[in-house]
Amino acid sequence: MECFCCGSTAVTERPDRTARGYRRVRCRDCGKQINERSAGPLNHTQYPSDVIALVVLWRLRYRLTLRDLAEMFLQRGIVFSHEAVRDWEAKLAPRLADEVRRRRHGKGGACGRRWHVDETYLKVGGGWAYLYRAIDRDGNLVDTMLSEHRDMAAAQAFFRSARSVTGQAPDQVTTDGHGSYPRAIRSTLGRRVVHRNSAYKNNRLEQDHRGVKGRIRCMRGFKSFDAARRFCKSFDELRNFLRPCTRHNQYVSARRRRLLHLRRATTALAILGAA
Fold first, then answer.
1. What whole-number distance in Å separates Cα of residue 144 and Cα of residue 147?
2. How many CB atoms lie within 10 A of CB 21?
C-alpha cells in the first residue's frame, strides 16, 4: 500500500482496523494515517465495499429503479436512500466501464472487422439525444456514444472512439441511409473500408437496441446529459461483458450460462470493490 498523500511506500500497518474491517497504516514519511479506502471514491462511506459494488452491479444489470434497490436491501437490514444509489453509480460505473473497455482493446479479430452502426433516440432533460452504437456481425459490442446532435461531427467522433477502443479499423461498415456516414467513414476509417447502405441489413443492430431501450424504460428518461451518457456507456459495456455468446445464434447450455455469468459477475464485483 502506498501513501496517497506523498506516494511513499514506507508505511507501517497498525494492529487495529476500521469499523468496517479495513486495514490501517501509518506513513513514516509524512505521518498520515490512512486505510485501504482512503484514496478511493468510497472513502468515508458507512457501508462495506462489497455491498456498494453489488448495488451498482444490480443497478446496471437489471431493470430496477433507485428506490427498488433501496427497498430490496432494506429487507436485509441495510438502510440507505435512493440518492445514495445514485451517488454510488456516479462514482463506480465509469470505472467499471473503463476497465471493461480496456480489457477488450484489440480483441476484434477477423469476426470483429465487420461493423453494424446505427443510432437510436433517448429522452434526456425533456429533449431527444442520439445514442450511437456499433456491434460486429456476431453481436459483440464495438462502441457506444451518446450525442446531443446527429450530424457529421458526431459520426466522426463516434468512429474515432470505436477505432480507439478496438485498436483496428473495420473492413466493412453497414449503416442506414443517413447522409453523414459515407464521408465520416472515409475521413475517419479510411477509403478502403467498404460501406454498405441498407436499412434491412442492419436489422441485427435494430434488435440489439432493445437491450438499452428496455433497461431505461422504467427510468422514464434522464434529467441530465452527463447522467445519461454515463449510464448508457456503463450498461452497454457490462451487458457485453456478461454476454455468454461469442457468435450469432450460438447455443449455450443453461449450465454453461450460469457458470459464465457467475464467473464474470464475480470479476465485475471485484473491479467495483477495488475502485
1. 10
2. 9
Does the pLDDT of residue 109 top 50, yes or no?
no
- Rounded-to-integer distance, Cα 108 and Cα 170, Å: 9
- Give the integer Cα–Cα distance in Å for 106 and 104: 6
Neighbours of 35 (CB within 10 A): 18
Could you tell me the end-to-end alpha-carbon distance of the chain, in angstroms, rounded to an integer? 14
CA distance 214 to 20: 37
The pLDDT assigned to 230 comes to 95
Taken in order of first residue, the domains within the chain and their CATH numbers are 1-39 (no CATH), 46-103+242-275 (no CATH), 111-223 (3.30.420.10)
Q: Is the pTM of this model over 0.70?
A: yes
| Burial class of residue 153 in the structure, from the number of CB atoms within 10 Å of its CB (0-12 exposed, 13-18 middle, 19+ buried) | exposed
Q: DSSP per residue over 82-141, as a string?
A: HHHHHHHHHHHHHHHHHHHHHHTTT--TTGGGEEEEEEEEEEETTEEEEEEEEEETTS-E
3-state per-residue secondary structure call for 172-199: EEEECCCCHHHHHHHHHCCCCCEEEECC
Assess whether pLDDT exceeds 60 at residue 224.
yes
pLDDT of the residue at 85: 95
| pLDDT one-digit tens code per residue, 126-138 | 899 999 999 998 8
